[in-house]
Predict the structure.
Amino acid sequence: MAAITALAQRSETATALIDGVLHGNRLLLARTITQVENQTAQASDLLHALYPHSGRAHIIGVTGAPGTGKSTLVTALARCYRQAGMTVGIVAIDPTSPFTGGALLGDRVRMRALAGDAGVFMRSMATRGSLGGLSKTTGDVVTVLDAAGFDRILVETVGVGQAEVEIASTAHTTLVVEAPGLGDEVQAIKAGILEIADVLVINKADRPGVDATLRALQMMLQIEGESTRLVRHHGQLLRVESPAAAGAEEQRWQVTVMKTVAAESTGVEELRAQVERHREWLVASGEMAVREQLRIANTLENIIRAELNRRILSRMPDGRMNEMVDAIRRRETDPYRAAADLLHLL
Amino acid sequence: MAAITALAQRSETATALIDGVLHGNRLLLARTITQVENQTAQASDLLHALYPHSGRAHIIGVTGAPGTGKSTLVTALARCYRQAGMTVGIVAIDPTSPFTGGALLGDRVRMRALAGDAGVFMRSMATRGSLGGLSKTTGDVVTVLDAAGFDRILVETVGVGQAEVEIASTAHTTLVVEAPGLGDEVQAIKAGILEIADVLVINKADRPGVDATLRALQMMLQIEGESTRLVRHHGQLLRVESPAAAGAEEQRWQVTVMKTVAAESTGVEELRAQVERHREWLVASGEMAVREQLRIANTLENIIRAELNRRILSRMPDGRMNEMVDAIRRRETDPYRAAADLLHLL
């Protein structure tokens, strides 16, 4: 009993965690990720030690509106990668609903299918509204999985929002998933995330309406024409021209639309092949280096922003903040003047 | 010709703009909003002058997944308010699609129905990916419309994302819009935004599946039980207990589900009445003061964050940033160490 208590209470040293991550210990990997998610005092030491071991994994973002079957697709894609002999990390970002007490449907879908396979590691991250923090934390978790040696890392978000575009800019290859019959217009178009796609996927392609959805997406692609990609940098979306884009037409990446029925694993191996083709193109065209630079720049900025926010909030005693809020409410001052005063103090 | 050229080139002084806003000049209002959106040098003077005139409008957030007919609903709601003798400002946040060259479907829906009525003012804001900036800028535009004297201000976002939750926390009353048949599960639940609703709306309620959607939402409400609200403060979502929540059951706000067919204006006047009931409850229960405090605190923090980001980015010469990015890419350092170094410099 005493031994069990001691075991439960022991917290691993940073060295033990780092060694565990680098040598395939999945329990220590999970604990490392927990520290990184919670941004513990030890977390930055862990990340500093693990970062040099990262940079090998290919990161695949999967996004799209709710109801398109993304969790099922991610699971099927992971299985295909396993069959191809690769190891897979999955980071699933689900909004947490207090209504359901934290149990997430996606988790249950994924766990059942992949349980027991040491070549797959899955981590769910609850958003719980921490907007700015999520992008940074997701990137950190990806870094840990990369260092742990996974060949492919799938990052699944519940799409249709600007935060999801930001997370997509952390991936090398981004898949945008649609499904037929989900409303009058193509969901992704309305939400403005279509531009971030390297591969478009119509899942649940056995449902009615798939031809209309396919035509709508192909029309959008024709209008778009060139293979540019919207990524985030310095808080602004930029179009990143492929270095090859100025040159021969054949060197551009063609965004195609693929059909899958993930629940039956139909079309998923073809999707995997297309992702691999994109990876090869990234390297051959020199675009990979550009995206890596943008990823790193975004990471740097996220870290700086998170730290500044932390410092600001810790230096502002609650009493002072409340006084200021009341003064503003009484219209004795305004938020702009008050903010300027606060910034002068810091 | 010379006079026309001079007219085109003249830029209004801050005084002229402020006077225009306060005295019903819609053209000068539009130009003021443009300055505020673009965060020009003059913008903070304009906001400082206008803020004391704000605080009277009731702000209504309207969010929900794409395809639920929000634009049509907002338009119909605005018309009901006009019939009730009130003036309405509408701020519509649409993702911008380079595919469609900036013309947004929502705009066309709204414009056609409301054109020519001086008692309604509509402004579309393009997201273009400026995540953090959007929340602040939206709040600023609402301040201007408030100062201009509009009784009700509708803020419409394309929902289903954490940024939208943040924007909802700037409203007094938040409507979450669902529609039947949009996928296997209630869209809003999957996206985690159900908790921010003060009123739930099933639009397109003439479509099949409405009863299933209604039952699902009512079940969620029963599980939830109490009337708490998730709002953002200090970057974290908080549950805000109504001061009355500790007391009598009758003093709590009951979140109900309303059915509308906005395209036929069915159920919209009933929705308007419910919004007004919520407003009265906010005042009577003391909750209005709490929400105002949170809105102001969020605004303060958004301004401070935006300013810090601006300062950081302006102090970092691009060359230095690129050097650092390359060093990280070569794994000579890592983003965490590099960020710490940069922060030391500042």
